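Lab notebook, page 48
Experiment: co-folding of the full assembly
Goal: obtain a model of how the components sit together before planning crosslinking
Operator: M.T.
Materials (sequences as entered):
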Amino acid sequence: RYNLFYSAFKHMESKIQSIYEELTRTRTSANGPVLHGTAYLSLEDSEEPYLDGVKYHAMPPAKTFRDMDHLSGGEKTVAALALLFAIHSYQPSPFFVLDEVDAALDNANVMRVASYVKRHASENFQFVVISLKNTFYERAQALVGIYRDRDVNSSKVLTLKLDGEYEN
Amino acid sequence: RYNLFYSAFKHMESKIQSIYEELTRTRTSANGPVLHGTAYLSLEDSEEPYLDGVKYHAMPPAKTFRDMDHLSGGEKTVAALALLFAIHSYQPSPFFVLDEVDAALDNANVMRVASYVKRHASENFQFVVISLKNTFYERAQALVGIYRDRDVNSSKVLTLKLDGEYEN
Amino acid sequence: GRLVKLELENFKSYKGHQVIGPFYNFSCIIGPNGAGKSNLMDAISFVLGVKSSQLRSSHLKDLIYRGGAINNSIDGLGGNDTENDASGPKRAWVMAEYHTSEGQVLKFMRIITINGASEYRFNGKVTTYEKYNKELEKQNILVKAKNFLVFQGDVEAIASQSPKDLTRLIEQVS
Amino acid sequence: GRLVKLELENFKSYKGHQVIGPFYNFSCIIGPNGAGKSNLMDAISFVLGVKSSQLRSSHLKDLIYRGGAINNSIDGLGGNDTENDASGPKRAWVMAEYHTSEGQVLKFMRIITINGASEYRFNGKVTTYEKYNKELEKQNILVKAKNFLVFQGDVEAIASQSPKDLTRLIEQVS
Ligand SMILES: Nc1ncnc2c1ncn2[C@@H]1O[C@H](COP(=O)(O)OP(=O)(O)OP(=O)(O)O)[C@@H](O)[C@H]1O
Ligand SMILES: Nc1ncnc2c1ncn2[C@@H]1O[C@H](COP(=O)(O)OP(=O)(O)OP(=O)(O)O)[C@@H](O)[C@H]1O
Ligand SMILES: [Mg+2]
Ligand SMILES: [Mg+2]
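Observation: model returned without errors.
Model output:
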């Protein structure tokens, strides 16, 4: 049990930084440097890891080292997604369902998250994402449009493949 | 004490429907009828109102009568704002501060809420609203732009009156 | 493997029989507030065996489509009691078609009735919840950990969960 | 009456002395994630006397600007320990200028120091919290009810609050 836990922890620890980096990479000006955030996992009590707990730290680019609680709404969302994807890298479930995870994100962060999803979506890592923001859904392969048909008092569905095919 | 409570309740009860109507008015098609939602307050135990409680009900347009818990994220947000404005109508605080209340709203609802704020903002009913959505903030009288100055590691502010004047 | 399509009947706001899909590697669900987007996520969670309390419903029977009186208030007109059918459907079901990376087609189905009983079918055959869940685990779908389902409004809390909770989550996937 | 401008010094992410405003009848605060928008709402709440636990801080001293080591990781380069000043400011304050409908100018000010003590000033004169709050209540600013402050992420819960909570809110404003 301890070995299983420990190998999972070690794996996620090795992945979290590169994932958070990819989600926070920002170019401050046209020719400026590309900044990125820093994230890591630490064991509160490294003798018996599952006694005390795993602590998660994430610092957005050019920010001070602070407690996770002081992060803003949007900064917390990005840190949370990085953690989810790091956990997934160890135990890859075949698909993700995300319901308006972009609600607190500004346009720049919506684009970074949507590009990350577009880059990593594959046969074995499928994304089903609910979003209200066109900056997010315009990058999808296909749209599932839900509308309410007032006449029959029911939800109805239309599917649209974004390279043009239309299926219903 | 009972009289004070009762007159507050009666006042809000009389206002909640017209406020919710204004926030949910939808024209279903170009020449179609204008639908709107229904909202009301009820006393769970009308003998002793502050023993049990005031129950709030809100039904979006063309939806069935259901428990408030079954409303969607966006539907709950609109219902919540109607309640807040109804309470305000009885005891008008001079200003409101709203932090990203439009996060769960689709574009149509953002426009309805922003138009409501624009219509009701006045010398004695001031709104300070934090928003990431241009559909909301483009209707404001003035913008307070916050940015992070990396050189001095601090938040900085710019103010812009939307009819063109620029102040710093 | 991946989720290819969903079929549902009288599940939440989806009246009658509807087929949804196909789902691609990156599909986005869009639509106005109250259209039924989160209900579709509830349908996916439901067919995987997630409890009704996580699906914004206190009883399983709340997941069955209910018509009821519609609020048709129109400017100038009052009243709204139309189609007050108490005689709604008595059961609801969701079926998920899943294709493994080897090309096998798996069908997971869950049915509920108005008295709250749940029935699970794997590839058309009735089975127990344990066996059903075992088939999901073979595809690496660990419903207990739920680390691949993020419900509306829950994302921020994931970053600020306590070390104890984070440890439990890692334990469930290890 | 209305809120006309805010002045603050070393409050949360606002370093040094800054003046914010004027505020109009409908002002919108905009800016990227992490810029300091919610911190500005915290400044308004703080000057009205709201407790620090509602301002995402466990101690009052967390509200004082802290520089600290900046994370300047740049692609290709490591390291990030610059400007590690432990010698940050020892106090912070916020002042709100309020104009009544009769044209009077009122100034509400709250100061905190690193040891967590709070000082209240009304129109420049030090006063007790009770008197300070009385002056706010004269302007119909009922901080106990807080029905005019909606913090980030809290709006949906207002619609589904329990009848008991709603009753208490109505009592506080009546
Ligand atoms: N059993 C049921 N039968 C019929 N309608 C239902 C049932 N359960 C929920 N609903 C309806 O479904 C609607 C909510 O749908 P849902 O939460 O999926 O919306 P959404 O598209 O996610 O909206 P948002 O963008 O606001 O989050 C509610 O209006 C509710 O009345
Ligand atoms: N005492 C302090 N000193 C310096 N910086 C602070 C202090 N307290 C909080 N911060 C910083 O302020 C930032 C958060 O600001 P805030 O929550 O206002 O952002 P926001 O503009 O509301 O963003 P979002 O759009 O994501 O909600 C954090 O990055 C945090 O590190
Ligand atoms: Mg939803
Ligand atoms: Mg914020």
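Interpretation: The mean pLDDT of chain B is 89.
Next step: discuss with group before ordering constructs.
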